[in-house]
Amino acid sequence: MADTDEGGYSRKWAALAVLPFLSLGLFDLVLLLGWGLDPLWGFMILPPILFMSALAWIGFRSGFIGHRTIGEDRVDEPAVTEVDHD
């Protein structure tokens, strides 16, 4: 993915990464309303979907997601199979 100067992803790549989850949430909302659920539930379900999508977009955009293991100061921890259980 395209890196930006801040260490995160570009806005376009961040939006493309979040788009499937946002689409799934909106599809779920349309499906519930299509089943005849009270529209008030739609207004109750929509804010968490939008909030989590915005939070994920900010995470991708700022570089918090994706670059956590890359760097010079990375600490090499032993794998689960390499741990001594004596």
Short descriptors:
mainly alpha, disordered N terminus, transmembrane helix, 56% helix, DUF8142, membrane, DUF8142 domain-containing protein
Commentary on this structure:
This protein is an all-alpha fold. The chain has a domain at 11-66. It is built from two helices and no strands. Helix 1 (11-34) packs antiparallel against helix 2 (39-62). The longest helix is centred in the first third of the chain and has 24 residues, at 11-34. The model is unreliable at 1-5 (pLDDT under 50).
Q: Give the terminus-to-terminus CA distance.
A: 43 Å
The helix/strand series, from N terminus to C terminus, equals HH
Give the strand content.
under 5%
Would you report the number of β strands?
Answer: 0
Count helical runs: 2
* Biggest sheet features: none
Stretches where pLDDT falls below 50 for ≥5 residues? 1-5
Class of secondary structure makeup: mainly alpha
Q: Label the overall shape.
A: elongated
- Helical percent range? 55-70%
pLDDT average, as an integer? 76
Radius of gyration: 19 Å
InterPro entries: DUF8142
Protein name: DUF8142 domain-containing protein
Keywords: Membrane, Transmembrane, Transmembrane helix
Organism: Halosimplex aquaticum
